[in-house]
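Form 12-C: Joint structure prediction
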Amino acid sequence: MEHARLTVITGHYGAGKTNFAVNLALDAAERGEKCTVIDLDIVNPYFRTADFEKTFSDKGIDLYAPVYANSNLDIPSLNIPLESILAAGGRVIIDVGGDDEGAKALGRFAPVITACESTDMLYVINKYRYLTKDAADAVQVMREIEYSCGLLHTGIVNNSSLGAETTADTVRESLAFADEVSELCGLPVRATCAVADAMPDSAPEKYVIKRYVRNLWEK
Amino acid sequence: MAEKSLMKGNEALAEAALRAGCKCFFGYPITPQTEIAAYLSKRMPKVGGVFLQAESEVAAINMVYGCAGSGIRCMTSSSSPGISLKSEGISYIAGADLPCVIIDVMRGGPGLGGIQPSQADYYQITKGVGHGDYHIIVLAPSTVQEMADCVTRAFDLADKYRMPAVVLADGLLGQMMEPVAFDDAEIVMSDASNKPWAANGHKNSRKHNIINSLYLQAPELERTIRERYERYAEIEKNETKAVADYCDDADIVVVAYGSTARLAKSAVDEARKQGIKAGAFRPVTLYPFPVNELNAAVKNAKKVLVVEMSMGQMVDDVKLAINCSRPVEFFGRTGGVIPAPAEILEKIKEMGGND
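Section 2 - Result
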């Protein structure tokens, strides 16, 4: 997929935002691009990009996270110098927390994000998430996120998956759903994500990912 | 079964409650179970149920007490420190013979502890939580699908025996995502039919029912408690459940519940690959404890290893259940640290799993 300099990733809880963000960052690093990941999740203390601190630092990816991320403190304190990060150059990926609640933290950065010359705000969808399995519900959550942070999306990412049980059929059966969401909101499907052996030939804008967010007994 | 969805453990608990006809949810937020309340606040109004965020855990459990008395299926959920706050109410509900479901998604303690997963509340939850001579049913799922299934079973058992039932999870299960399927049946909210004891208004058509746990005459209180223990005997006889894997020829049987059972099972799978005769035993009911199933599973074992995310609590029940017929060792991590399968395997080897 084509990349803007700043990629903002939003979505419903558990749609797979973090896994998508980690894939984007590691791919960028692989290509030798300077890359910074910002974990803006102030909602969820488990399974988040800040979990990948070691992986990122090994690959030379800078990580910014809420001050108390992965501590035992549930305090949403953000100390993220976004202007400076953007001024320093390279790609910037922002992993936002779930739903409109998670996107609240994004609002304060809206002026800086709007001022950036090349920005994508991608809405991650997963047909298999229970509360957003209907396209209309998925679009409603998308609008709630926009209302909450004051920014508009530029595309959608079909990240439909059943976790470890995902097959090519799982992804294939989500393509019509992604098209429907696209039609309802008027934004293009910018990527269809799947692990290599679950990527159907018919998928548009294929983006082969790895599952980095895993349970301990799967590692 | 309908098509599968990808759900967080907490969401599956919440959706399963709706599908069991749970009409009223009373809760108060606490990590790592807040998604239950967040989910039900969105879903309840759409299916004709009631979501109420109480002013505290104490208030929420007392709302459950009142609602359960009316014969309607109701639920509350919390995590460790919040369950401590609910303990008085749980004792009253048990003392008034009322059915309800309580979800406990454990985190590290004592005190405020931490927000990472833990199993350090085994004693608390399996020994009734509050004061008095009583039991509550405790179910311990280990997958997201089983979390949903346990909620259904908890409501059924609570109604059948007129007592509180707990679904005991931990932060890891609550937060992790796995595919889950619900049947296609339409959601039907519960009412008080088939509950002749309910205090639900009857326009003076019968003698009124009384919901009470106060018995000032000692012989009367003893009688009610003895009646209750006759029910507990039935539960202990009929409602135990456990899963045993490769126990028949195992030298070492590893006993674990909840998410820890999955870590233990990984270690046992790896042990088998390395030619070590290990087996895995997972209690699904913690009260009633699966005594007979455990004795059958360890019949040919030389040793038993109990693994918990605590300093060792269920290990006592394991020793009691098998009457210390073989050595029982323990391995655990605590405070929110999750035991790694490699550490468990190391312990299996240390116990002579290579002999």
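Section 3 - Comments
Chain B touches chain A at residues 4-8, 11, 15, 31-32, 35, 39, 42-43, 108, 114-116, 171-172, 175-179, 262-263, 265-266, 336, 338, 340-341 (CB under 8 Å). The CA atoms of residues 333 and 339 of chain B lie 6 Å apart.
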